[in-house]
Amino acid sequence: MNYKDALKIIEPPDKEAIALCKKRWDSIAKPLHSLGKLEDGIIQIAGIAGKEQIDLDKKALVIMCADNGVVEEGVTQSSSQVTAIVSENFIDMNSCACIMAKQIGAAVFPIDMGINRDTKLPNNKKIAYGTNNILYGPAMTRQQAIQAIEVGIDTVFELKEKGYNIIATGEMGIGNTTTSSAVTSVLLDLPVEMVTGKGAGLSNAGLERKIEVIRKAIERNKPHKDDPIDVLSKLGGYDIAGLAGVFIGGAAARIPVVIDGFITLAAALIAIGIEPKVYDFIMPSHVSKENGGKILLNAIGMQPYITCDMCLGEGTGAITLFPLLDMSLAVYKQMSTFDQIKIDAYQPLK
Ligand SMILES: Cc1cc2ncn([C@H]3O[C@H](COP(=O)(O)O)[C@@H](O)[C@H]3O)c2cc1C
Ligand SMILES: O=C(O)c1cccnc1
Q1: What does UniProt list as catalytic (predicted)?
Q2: Domain tally, the chain
Q3: Which residue's CA is the nearest one to ligand 2's atom 9?
C-alpha cells in the first residue's frame, strides 16, 4: 500500500470501546486499577480493536533483517556476516527471540529487508544488498526508504488478514545501533554521545570511534530534522525503515504494535514523526539498557512495562510483554464483578 494512503485511513482509537473496557475493569471485584498498567494495556488494545471484548490468541513477532554499510568503519564488535547467519537461524526457531516466542505461542516472521547476501528467508523483500556507508553519503535513496516503509505496512495488513491480533517488533542487523543512534541524535536534536552506546558489545575505544563516525555521518549527510523520511534515508537502515512501516501499518490496520528496544524505538520515533496519530497504536514493552533507550522512551512519551536490563534486540523485549497481557486479559474476561459476589467495594469495615 502507498504509505500516504495508509496515513489517510488512520482514525483515532474508539472512545466507546475504551469507556466500556474501563467500566468492565472497574466492576471487577478487586481494588480499583490495582493491576495498573496491565489494565491500561487492555484498555488501549480495546480502543485499537474498536471493541470491548478483545482477543490476543494470535500473536506475531515481525523481525526486520538488514545489513548496514557503516559496519566497515569498525562501529560494532561483529562482522556483517552475523546478520545473515542469525537471520537464517530464525527459520529454525533457533535464536533467543524465537525460543522465547515459541514458549509463549507467538509466530515468528523474519523478513529479509536488505541482508548483504542471498538468504534462505522465505520472506524476501530485499530492497538492496545492505545500505551504503553513511560516513560517505546517504544510506539509501528516499525512494528506497519509502519502499521499505511500504513493505512494513503491507506486512501488517497481511498478518491482520491471517487473523493476528497483536504484533511485536524485532530486528536483526549488525551495526543497527549505529544507525539508530544517528537517527535519534538528529530527530531529538541531542548530542551524539548522549544517545550512543556499546550496542552488542564494544570497547571504550570502539565506542569513541562509533561516536565520531556518527558525528561525521551527520555532518556529511546534512539531514533535515523536520523531515523524518529524509533522516531515515540518509542515516537509517532498511530494517528501521521496514519497522517504521510496521508501526504505521498497525495504526492503519488497527492492530497494536509493540516496541522492542533501542532500534525499534528509533523506528517508532520516525513513524510518529511522519504521522503523530500513530502514537496511540503503539505499545511500549521494556526499557533497553542501551544508552539512549530510556531517553527515546521518554521522548516518545511512554512508560515501560518491564525494567530488567535487557538489550538484545530481535524482539526479545517486545514479546516479554505478551504473557503479561495474557494474564491481564484472563482476569479481565474471567473474574467476577462486585455485583456478582455481592461486595460493596466502598463499604467501610465495621
Ligand atoms: C550474535 C548476535 C546476535 C544478535 N541478536 C541481536 N543482536 C543485536 O545486535 C545488533 C546491534 O548491535 P551492533 O550495532 O553493536 O552491531 C543487532 O543485530 C541487534 O538485533 C545480535 C548481535 C549479535 C552479535
Ligand atoms: O536495545 C536493543 O534492542 C539492543 C541493544 C543493543 C544491541 N541490540 C539491541
Answers
A1: 314 (proton acceptor)
A2: 2
A3: 313
